[in-house]
Predict the 3D structure of the following.
Amino acid sequence: MQGPPQRNDWFDDECAAATSLKNNACINMVAKKNTRWAREEYQRRRYEEKKIRRRKKREAWKELIEEMEEASRQKETRKFYRKVNIIRKGYKPRIGMCKDKKGNLVHEEKKVLQRWAEHFDELSNGHGDEDGNKGDSMMKVKLRI
């Protein structure tokens, strides 16, 4: 079975190692009651982590732009516009919530999936909610699980 797709192509072992070092320095700082040395070590590790992440993100953006330029030169319009849309649309947070029949917000994954199943069952079978409205009972939220 394959795991979920990786969202950040730039996050690699180097970034993970820097994050781990920073987290260990933070734990060390808290354990030593925030001594000057521990605090400075944590700040230095945090700065190094941010520096590595900025560099990796910058390299990923340069690579994306180079791929766009290459697709443009090769007259591969579909590939070119897919890359353009990645930049144009930007980051979209994942929202996994909806409202139940009573109007309460549901956020647990299993309950959200169950509610969507009920909603589409109502739509396909022609059942409406208590007021007789078809399809108006769901909060319009994109679901990406």
Remarks:
- Confidence is low (pLDDT under 50) at residues 134-139.
